Amino acid sequence: MSARDWLLDESPTSRWQAGAGRAYAAARLLLRNPLAVVGGGIILLLVLTAALAPLIAPESPLGQNLSNRLLPPSSAHWMGTDELGRDIFSRVVFGARITLMIVVLVAVISAPLGMIVGAVSGYFGGWTDRVLMGLTDIFLSMPKLILALAFAAALGPGIENAVIAIAITTWPAYARISRAETMTWRNSEFVAATRLLGASHARIIGRHILPLCASSTIIRVTLDMAGIILTAAGLGFLGLGAQPPLPEWGAMISRGRTFILDQWWVATMPGLAIILVSLGFCFLGDGLRDALDPKGQAKS
Amino acid sequence: MTAIALRGLNIAYAGTPVVRDVTLDVAEGESFALVGESGSGKSTVLKAITGLAPEWTGSIEVLGRPAAHHPDRKLARVVQMVFQDPYGSLHPRKTVDAVLTEALAIHGIGDRDARVEAVLRDVGLDRRFRFRYPHQLSGGQRQRVAIARALVLEPRILLLDEPTSALDVSVQAEILNLLKRLRAEHRLTYLLVTHNLPVVSFMCDRVAIMNRGRVVEIAPAAALHDGEFQDSYSRQLYAASGGNSPMESAGR
To answer: Complex ipTM, two decimals?
Structure first.
């Protein structure tokens, strides 16, 4: 029996095989979508770059060499050098680590927070719903970057605080989504049946409702990644995100602004990196939506 | 012993009364039917017994113990329910195995593998269905899984909410035969809600006829053969299901 037959077996013989088969079917659907493949490729590139940064980067991202300052892109310095003579390519490569860290941390903090708030709110309804959604609406009504700015300013500049600030501003969207999803499921018979088995509310929300909200939240998070990167870059640009000499892309653009007319590459190169990664997440998010959307599955 | 005793039961949804003053007893081991047209409150009675319809007054006793106004862990070991729609009553992302194992996990019952296998055998599902997702099952197979979920905790009373009305006619017969066999094998008490009178005469000992939230008559299931109903609504219902000609019942 080939691995493929094993995965697509209509009658799996173990929990593990059933789960693997489902994941395989979703992956196949995803791979059939060219945009998703391009997006996934870009994200994979980002991850590999971040993981292997010391091997890829030809120079240290921090080491200064004032005799080489502001050199245009050449074979020695693929993306030129900045005002302190640092190789921009090396800095962009190491910057991938910071970007990836910000994106992952924000997703890990805000997605579960939003999902739990939304699911609890939608499941119980009534006063719980009113209070939690009121809170969500307050956060939702404030512009993201301004709120993040306020938090970063209050907590002090730095990557960790930027992450917290961005996470605080992104969770309300996920709460809204999972609340809407929860409300479609909470009166379903399988929830009633599970309650009759003696399951607690916490168990029903955790084991039954949240897994159903997960796919739409994952899609939304992936689509939001671009916005998260841009907000992080924006905070960096405004001096409230990563602090020099860290090679954060937004902060690099900010430094390059001074020379943008004569030495365009200083600001452009990290900008290109931001665009590429944002685009990658957008493509992957669209592909995921097509692959995970139950309606889309019905079509194929 | 009385399995289910309802005394002066009134049930409301968000303040609107749905069921009024229902009093009935279901003996242990009996198969009792609640019939009536849509909206007569028959399913609501089942929901009140299980605690899913918490707004009730009066008294509900299950095997001599008063029932709570919310789903109760202890009650879960005694009373289980099978829902009408086999498509809505199974979690779309959980395997058959996960559904059945969870029931055992909630109550901390060990030996789960063997119990799951046993209950699947009981409801006539082959082992190869164990790790399938609901979308890989037919309607009848799903309903068997729903019955297995109700049985895995080994309850003594099964509440059946129109268990066959969402199924094909050929599958209906299979499920009814299965329910009949399970009742004999496990000495279960059934409280069955249906609007299908032939199902009642096949499955049940006694029948309560409900109209607009009230029980208008409780009769032995034999009445379905000879049409010996006292209440005029019962006779109408009987006539409408083809048991008797409307002319004849009008003439009585």
So the answer is: 0.88
